[in-house]
Amino acid sequence: MAEREVDRSVSQTVKAQLALRDQILSGALRPGERISELQAVETTGASRTPVRMALVRLEEEGLLEAIPSGGFMVKAFSERDISDSIELRGTLEGLAARFAAERGVSARELEPLKECLGAIDELLRQVPISVDAFSSYVALNARFHALLTELSRSPPLIRQIDRASALPFASPSGFVMAQSALPEAQQILIIGQEHHRVVIDAIENREGARAEAIMREHARLAVRNLRLALRNRTHLDLLPALALIKTATD
Amino acid sequence: MAEREVDRSVSQTVKAQLALRDQILSGALRPGERISELQAVETTGASRTPVRMALVRLEEEGLLEAIPSGGFMVKAFSERDISDSIELRGTLEGLAARFAAERGVSARELEPLKECLGAIDELLRQVPISVDAFSSYVALNARFHALLTELSRSPPLIRQIDRASALPFASPSGFVMAQSALPEAQQILIIGQEHHRVVIDAIENREGARAEAIMREHARLAVRNLRLALRNRTHLDLLPALALIKTATD
DNA sequence: CCGTCCGCTATTGTATACATAACGTATTCA
DNA sequence: TGAATACGTTATGTATACAATAGCGGACGG
Between A202 and which of A14, A211, B144, B214 could a Cys-Cys bridge form, CB atoms 3.0 to 4.6 Å apart? Predict the structure, then answer.
């Protein structure tokens, strides 16, 4: 295949990984479906070696599952798997918040978080919130959580949280987006923002237990969100990760 | 290289992964040292493709770190990295214990844990405990923790705990072993065993919060253990994982 | 004598060829 | 007619060849 057009700007492995993840999250590959290497080679444009590396990485990431007889399939998740993942992430973020509070954080380090907080406040002033504003919210919320995680100053914990978030459905913000059309959406966002405010306050005052508790509560809110979103199946098309959920009849 | 002797019983990838992990944990490869693929090919007997797959997996496992310019190096950890990892694991196990308690566990499911508990009790009857008994203890303790994790019935959580334990130093039992010569060792084991007993009791009585709290306390005990072990550098040779700790002068 | 630049070498990233195992299909026998 | 076996095809596991890049050493110039 001499006419393969090679993009030298990023490694083929990374390119293949991104392309395959897109295919999985977009639902082009259904849960339980076997991923053919050859087919992946054609759709990603990389050759088999980088494709295989990408498949291994995606397996470690939790999106794929190794088939005993060889090869990989797209992993399928139950609703409980997902709510557990959210609670799991909240627990880890709680630990991060506690570490931050106990180990102390300078005002300078808290600055970016407060900016984030302010930007979200700005967005929430709109009632009802627009779809565009939702997108911004999702990005800002992700940034807030990432910054908070960093404050723990604990590389192993940060790494683990990244992993727990790598399963994209574990990101609470995604579920909120699914509910942008629900009347409860605004309330949920406001409550979530209050949690953000409290955790910063707790960290500033070095109240580790309080910082931890609020992040866990934050996750429980996200779980309630998920349940709500799944009951009211509005805007679910905005949530590609939900393509991974097993249907009840499976 | 036609004379390569191929062991067909396990895949070359797995073989290479195990061999490389051994080399890392045994200290044959020092922290910060770059791993040469070619060299790995020679020492593992696999060819470059499976070796590369193994390297990717070990990176995901946390033992290796990708070098920006290419290749991998052995990751180095600080003492705090390790104590954080222990606390991290304890937090996840706490969540598992809570899930088990809240979701309910049949007497039949608790049976293996109680057997484990009894076997450990048997071992602890020896004073002072022998090195052989320590090895048995380590195995039994690992089994107890694995069984407990399973009780959560939460695949995402079980997976995450496995990952947190994949960094072998995160396994509290390892550190206890390092202290087999310390006078405090016996006490520590007895206290740990008490924690095991309490968590089972809490799960039986469906006290989720208590089950969670005791597992976190258990991890804090392990952290104290680690500190003690590092102060009294006895039997550290029994702890290959400590080869990964950066020395203070690094 | 030191610094810089050029070229070489060694190592990784990528592609592909080969081996092997699994699955599906067709044919045959009971 | 149904089931079992054998064969063929297809896909994965493995090995190796090729390409490109980064790091190092030597040589030349200031």
Answer: A211
